Amino acid sequence: GSSLEPEECSMEPPAVPEEEVPVTVAPGPVGCQLFGYVGIEAVLDQMKIKTMKTGFEFNIMVVGQSGLGKSTMVNTLFKSKVSRKSSQPGQEERIPKTVQLQSITHVIEEKGVKMKLTVTDTPGFGDQINNENCWDPIIKYINEQYERYLREEILITRKRKIPDTRVHGCVYFVPPTGHWLRPLDLEFMRRLSKIVNVVPVIAKADTLTLEERAEFKQRVRTDPQGTPGVPHVSPAQLKSCIPQIQEDLKTHAISVYPQEDFDQDPEDRALNDRIREKIPFAVVGADQEHQVNGKRVLGRKTKWGIIEVENPAHCEFPLLRDLLIRRSHLQDLKDITHNVHYESYRVRRLNESNRP
Prior knowledge:
By secondary structure, the protein is an alpha/beta fold. The chain contains 10 helices and 9 strands.
């Protein structure tokens, strides 16, 4: 309501609003000296205990032709029978007409840490005469896992911990031909590297000599018509004109894991640079132990000796194991899957749903 009393008139000039003066805060010291023990370092122990109770999930996919030792390699990685057997004794294995994905889930526990491991195999990939669009079932499967996670995430009442079935890493097995990468290899990695972390490996590297293995890592060539994998130079010119495999991957827009674009920390970049120099890893898988110098080691027994799987002088399996399981890369695989590949899929799906 209005007041009936007369308003008082002031003879003073109206106040001019003062200009806002920006306030600058001096940056504080990076570290603060404490007077005593606070206990903030105990947060790491709390996180460790919580992770050990709840466990974590890790999903890996192996892709390659039949007979390249995919199942054996997975069993060697986790030192247990976590992957299917390629064939049963006394029975002939029938190659499926199309790519049929098979997933097996296990719970592995080591020193109190539980991991729910899902291995997805792709029998029938690249086994046919006509391999046109043979990667479509794999792309469809990966996108289906993203879609399943997205549907759980956008629910009004959602679970506190959403089940994670997304593929965190895809190990692609290259046949040990000792020659060039096939167009199928390059086309698969080009398509899949955009939606999942791809780690290429040379399967059954014990069939190659050290010289052949080193040369195979560099033998990638594109002919004048742009068809990869077709040589058009003499063998004497190979060493001088064939580019390295990393350069060919860049030429075909193939970004394998670990990707250079995601290296933020200088120490991580230096470590990943050393790993990228070894890609593709020349690996050998074995799930049987043998006696070598009084020790039981995993290896493959031949007429001339035993190939030790965990010996860096024999193969590069330890590098692959460190990349996928040990050090910091297992969590990094999950972070890139969530923050990069899944985020790209989520943005694309939400944009599609918002279109009129």
